Amino acid sequence: MKKNDKILIIAVLVIGILACLLFSFRGSGKEVVISQNGVETFRFDLSEENSVVLQYDEEEFNEIVVKDGKVSVIYATCPDQICVEQGEISQEGETIVCLPHKLVVEIK
Asked: Fewer beta carbons under 10 A from the terminal one: N or C of the chain?
C-alpha cells in the first residue's frame, strides 16, 4: 500500500466520523409544519399538545397528533398506510410523507 493510499483512507474515515457526529447531534425541532399539496396548512409548537384532521373529501383524511414533543400520523385513509407506519418524529429535518394525499409533516 502506497503512502497516498493510506492518506486517502484516513481522510475518508475522518470525514465519515465527522459526518456521523454532525448528524447525531442535530437539535430537536421547535415546530411542526404541515403542508398539503405544497401549501403550508398548519404550524404548531412541538412542545404543545395538538391534533388536526385534514379532510380531503367525504372519505379521505389524515389525523395528525402532536404529543410529548413528538408528532405522528395516527390514522389515514390512504391504501398503503406508510405515513402511519412511519411512527413518531421529533428531530429537526425529519419528515412524514403521505403521497396519496400529497401531505408532508416536517419538523423545523
From this structure: N
Q: Please tell me the predicted confidence (pLDDT) of residue 89.
A: 94
Closest by CA to 76, choosing from 91, 55, 95, is 55
Q: What is the DSSP letter of 90?
A: -
* pLDDT reading at 27 higher than 80: no
Q: How many domains does the chain have?
A: 1
* 94 φ, ψ (degrees, to nearest 5): -75, 150
Measured distance CA(31)–CA(45) in Å, rounded: 5
Residue 26 in grid coordinates:
442535530
| pLDDT bucket at 24, cuts 50 / 70 / 90 | low
Using CA atoms of 25, 50, 103, 83 in order, give the dihedral in degrees to the nearest 10. 70
Taking a C-beta distance cutoff of 8 angstroms, is the pair 103, 35 a contact? yes
pTM, full prediction: 0.72
Does any domain span residue 17? no
**Residues near 54 by beta carbon (within 8 Å), at least 6 away in sequence:** 34, 36, 41, 61, 62, 63, 64, 101, 103
